Amino acid sequence: MSSTFLGVPTPHGASPLHGSEPFPDAARGAVADAQLRHNIGAATATIRAKRAAVVAEVDDWEQLRRNGQEIKRYTLAHLDELLIRLEQNVIARGGIVHWAADAAQANRIVTEIVTATGESEVVKVKSMATQEIGLNEALAEAGITAHETDLAELIVQLADDRPSHILVPAIHRNRSEIRDIFRSRMPGADPDLTDDPPALAAAARAHLRRTMLGAKVAISGANFAVADTGTLAVVESEGNGRMCLTLPETLITVMGIEKLVPTWQDLEVFLQLLPRSSTGERMNPYTSLWTGVHPGDGPQRFHLVLLDNGRVDTLADEVGREVLHCIRCSACLNVCPVYERTGGHAYGSVYPGPIGAVLTPQLTGVAENPSLPYASTLCGACFDVCPVRIDIPSILVHLRAQATDAHSRPTAESAGMAAASWVMRSSRRFTAATRVLRVARLLRNRRGTIGVLPPPMSAWTSARDLPAPPKETFRTWWENR
Asked: Is the Cβ–Cβ distance between 72 and 390 less than 8 Å?
């Protein structure tokens, strides 16, 4: 790898990976929105049911998960070799490879490529990597208009909204809201457009078809890249991506460096895991694969931008690096009780839900997003559905420890814990403490519990009762026998 690719810090500030407020504050507002909770709850329940049905059809599903996990482990362990192999094969087949250390560099590379074509408009395939770097905004500053062609991304773009889900960015909108957005924001939309799903889809199709047929430049992400051949893969359900990947003269793909698989045989595993986990389909309706440039067939100029943006730093964390196994299926979002009640915007990142709670802090540095590792109940449902067996709960605990270390300051709680630790390190001190605690029995109420304690313990009893100490401690009981 180029030395300029490693170790360059990602600029902070306004970013698609940073929220304007901590998760607890943002979550309070989201939970108070009954319509949002209804929209998210209904949508995630539907996706969960579809996924469960198609996964149940596969007898060796657990073995597939383990295979995916092992392929990802091997890939990360040999990432330097595999990236060089990918670069060599893309170049050998007529493509051009660029290395981007951070979002700013990636945006600059893409902007310069588009500017060199003389075009002022591009069409885009749904891509988490381009959302992560804020590419649309960077292009707009250079006078270039980016047209999202994925239906859900189009809805978000027309509404000047933010995506709230990895797979379904407009999951927080119901169809009546989408109808209103199309009527007011989509050029040429029928003012009498109804909220019937086929009518909405037809309106979006007519709008997008005009844009895609005239586009000279397309920008995509990549679900996978095969190092052995230099082949890129995009899977989708609508066909808009297929048109963007084949019709324009220039194709630019922005891909996180972790999206590699070594061989075509490895790709087979993920093409079984991803559609079942994400859309609840046995196979994606459109699986597009391309290798370099072919004269007279498809784009005649292909650029691949390989993006770090915090991934190399994440790879250095022996516990946290497992998040780089993620294939962006969003299964963890659809089972998470926290996400279901808050939606995605509360996370302040284009990566919401459980995977966002562990991925975002590592891409930005835990100190920049210290509240996200706490956006979880640690119920473990995310691990159960993850197609590559990422142990999200364990990583959350790992990141919580880092967040605590980064923001450690004296509090009443930390002082109490320090005092308890000092008492418990000595058998004599602990025995004396248990005798003193029996005095608290005098504070019992009629229910036999303690309902009021002096500060700072009043913070506990203001919301709940405290069990009263027993008449006899275990030590006393043992001595008497």
From this structure: no
**pLDDT tens string 65-81:** 999 999 999 999 999 99
19 contact partners, CB below 8 Å, separation of at least 6: 26, 346, 347, 348, 349, 369
354 touches 376 (CB < 8 A): yes
For the four alpha carbons of 350, 356, 359 and 363, in that order, the dihedral sign comes to: positive
CA distances from 408 to 357, 404, 415 (A): 20, 5, 12
151-192: pLDDT as tens digits: 999 999 999 999 999 999 999 999 999 999 999 999 989 999
Cα 97 from Cα 250, distance rounded (Å): 14
Other Cβ atoms less than 10 A from the Cβ of 427: the count is 9
The tens digit of pLDDT for each residue in 262-313 reads 999 999 999 999 999 999 999 999 999 999 999 999 999 999 999 999 999 9
Domains of the chain, by residue range, sit at 3-311, 412-479
What span, in angstroms and rounded, lies between the C-alpha atoms of 116 and 108? 12
**Concatenated DSSP letters of 327-359:** ----HHHHH-HHHHHH-SGGG-SSS-HHHHHHH
The CATH topology of domain 3-311 is Rossmann fold (3.40.50)
Q: Which of 96, 93, 209 is nearest to 151 (CA)?
A: 209
- Cβ neighbors of 4 (< 8 A, separation 6 or more) are 99, 101
pLDDT digits (tens, 9 = 90+) for 131-155: 999 999 999 999 999 999 999 999 9
> Which among 358, 351, 354 is positioned nearest to 381, based on CA atoms?
354
DSSP calls for 194-247: -S-HHHHHHHHHHHHHHHHHH-SEEEE--SEEETTTTEEEEEESSSHHHHHHHS
**E runs forming strands in 268-399:** 286-291, 301-307
- One-letter amino acid at 387 equals P
C-alpha to C-alpha distances, 107 to 14, 98, 139, 362, 442, nearest whole angstrom = 15, 12, 8, 21, 67
Judge residue 461's burial from the number of C-beta atoms within 10 Å of its C-beta, 0-12 exposed, 13-18 middle, 19 or more buried: middle
What are the percentages of helix, strand and coil residues in the chain, rounded to 5? 55, 10, 35
Q: For residue 260, how many other CB atoms are within 10 A of its CB?
A: 24
pTM of the model: 0.84
